[in-house]
Automatic annotation (TrEMBL):
GO terms for cellular component: membrane. This is ECF transporter S component. It comes from the Bacteria. InterPro entries: ECF_substrate-spec-like. Keywords: Membrane, Transmembrane, Transmembrane helix. It comes from Ruoffia halotolerans. Gene3D superfamilies: 1.10.1760.20. The lineage of its organism: Bacteria, Bacillati, Bacillota, Bacilli, Lactobacillales. The chain crosses the membrane at residues 6-28, 40-62, 74-93, 105-125, 137-155.
């Protein structure tokens, strides 16, 4: 069970991720979808709040972004894909002990999102559309990973220490 403090953090990160993602939407006509900035919020949620927090920030913001942006056919897929993505990044970040744990976590989380949307696009549309989704999803995950790294480096310079993870 979550403590009230963590529920508030999940709610705030979900709202922030959704709002930022809705501010910048880049349409991808081939798959009737779009590219957003949601990865940064999901990855920050996963690193700062652990696997469960990452799951809920990913699932809730992923679904909300689709519903609020007029693409409800993607909402269930996004909830599952981004939820798993946040869970995976949070889990791997906590389990790895190497200096590259953040990079490894982000790469594997990004790969899970790209594969997830490839499958979802094949289900909703066709395999050519699924192939067309790869570059946009790759750009989205790379940008989100870079933003996450920059924000975490900034947080480490403050009294808040995100290196603990799962707060």
């Amino acid at each position: 069970m979550f403590k009230t403090n963590n529920l508030v953090k999940i709610a705030l990160l979900t709202a922030l991720t959704t709002a930022i993602s809705l501010l910048v939407i880049i349409p991808v006509p081939a798959m009737n979808g779009f590219v957003t900035l949601c990865e940064a919020g999901i990855y920050l949620g996963a690193v700062l709040l652990g696997p469960a927090g990452g799951f809920w920030v990913g699932a809730l913001s992923g679904g909300l972004i689709d519903i609020l942006s007029g693409a409800p056919q993607w909402a269930l897929f996004s909830m599952i894909i981004h939820g798993i993505q946040g869970l995976l990044v949070g889990y791997l970040y906590q389990k790895f002990t190497s200096t590259f744990k953040l990079s490894i976590s982000l790469v594997l989380g990004s790969a899970s999102m790209i594969v997830g949307y490839f499958i979802a696009t094949m289900i909703l549309y066709t395999w050519p559309a699924a192939m067309a989704s790869i570059p946009g999803n790759l750009v989205q995950t790379v940008f989100g990973s870079l933003v996450t790294i920059v924000v975490l480096k900034g947080l480490k310079k403050t009294s808040f220490n995100p290196a603990k993870g799962g707060n």
